[in-house]
Amino acid sequence: MFVPRRSLPPLNAVRAFEAAARLGSFKEAAVELGVTHGAVSQQIRLLESWLGPPALFRRSVRRVVLTPAGAALLQEFAPALDRISAAVQQHRKRRGEAPAAVLRVNALATFSLRWLLPRMARFRTEHPDIEVRLSTSNDQVDALPELFDVVIRGGPDTFHGFASRFLLSEQRLPVCSPALLAQLPLTEVADLSRHTLLHVTSMPRLWRDWLTDAGESALEGAATLTFDHFYLTLQAALDGLGVAMGPTALIADDLAAGRLVTPFPDIRLPARSYFAYFPEGRDDDPHRAVFCDWLEQQGRQTSGRS
């Protein structure tokens, strides 16, 4: 008997769609899936092209909203992916393999994009038995709407019902692209007056505090650009748009690769360190301990390079 071939869309595109639809954000879907924002957008476009009109999402500046067609697909795709996941777990049990432990992690968006995600492939290779489900937020540890196994925030802070563990230290100093530095050299702090200074709205005094420490409190840049996220400020520096105040932990990889340079490496602002916070009474969770041990090890390597 002839059995018609199944007409199935690309599975990676389905996963990207389901995550973006559930989270209402391509950026958050990228973090959860461990890929870039552009990769999620590309997979969504692939799925929409494969399916044909109507579109699945209405795009806005900060969020994406499902169209009626997208909502109908989500109702079918989400349970199907759950069934696939359950089938995989059953297959592993039949082979005598323990199912992967799920570790729910919430971290700051810039930290996730600039430091954690580039290292997650290494963790998955070293610890295939632990599945890290990452989400991002800037909410305080005790203000999150749900409970996570590990929350990564600045510190040290004290939150009722939570223990903490140091992960990574940080300082801040000016950074720019090598091409910009070649075009407009920075031999002394006063030379910053010829440059565009890149700001972030959440830390409006960052440049002023650094310039005060550097003995140039009255200095003004030739122009300013202000962004609402730190990672946008750092991307602008990478693209040669100006000089940013770079957090040493989050620019260590770019410095090592030569994508960014520090014209004044000896003048640094102190900054809060990164800590892992987790519910009290979970100290004996072996998977959390493995993950935090690994984070701390990666943090030591980063501190040695920054």
From TrEMBL:
<feature type="domain" description="HTH lysR-type">
    <location>
        <begin position="9"/>
        <end position="67"/>
    </location>
</feature>
<dbReference type="InterPro" id="IPR005119">
    <property type="entry name" value="LysR_subst-bd"/>
</dbReference>
<keyword id="KW-0238">DNA-binding</keyword>
<dbReference type="InterPro" id="IPR036388">
    <property type="entry name" value="WH-like_DNA-bd_sf"/>
</dbReference>
<protein>
    <submittedName>
        <fullName>Transcriptional regulator GcvA</fullName>
    </submittedName>
</protein>
<dbReference type="InterPro" id="IPR058163">
    <property type="entry name" value="LysR-type_TF_proteobact-type"/>
</dbReference>
<keyword id="KW-0804">Transcription</keyword>
<comment type="function">
    <text>NodD regulates the expression of the nodABCFE genes which encode other nodulation proteins. NodD is also a negative regulator of its own expression. Binds flavonoids as inducers.</text>
</comment>
<dbReference type="Pfam" id="PF00126">
    <property type="entry name" value="HTH_1"/>
</dbReference>
<dbReference type="InterPro" id="IPR000847">
    <property type="entry name" value="LysR_HTH_N"/>
</dbReference>
<comment type="similarity">
    <text>Belongs to the LysR transcriptional regulatory family.</text>
</comment>
<dbReference type="InterPro" id="IPR036390">
    <property type="entry name" value="WH_DNA-bd_sf"/>
</dbReference>
<keyword id="KW-0805">Transcription regulation</keyword>
<dbReference type="Pfam" id="PF03466">
    <property type="entry name" value="LysR_substrate"/>
</dbReference>
